[in-house]
Amino acid sequence: MSKHIFSIYLEDLFRTLNVFSDYLSDLIQNSVLEIKNKAIHTRVTQVLRLNKLDNKVILFDDNFNIKIELLEQTFKNNKTIYFKILEKNENKKIYPEIILCPSVVKRQALEEIVYSAAAMGATKILPIVAHKSYSKFNFEQERSRLKKIMIAACEQSKNFVLPEICAPISFSNFLTEFDSSNIHKIFFDLDGQVITSLISELDDCKNNKIVLFFGPEGGFTDLEVNLLKENKFNSVSLTTTILRAEHAVALGLGMFRSLFR
Question: Contacts by 247-252 with C-beta closer than 8 Å and gap 24+?
Answer without folding.
Answer: 248/188, 248/214, 249/100, 249/102, 249/112, 249/113, 249/116, 249/117, 249/214, 250/112, 250/113, 250/116, 250/120, 252/188, 252/212, 252/214
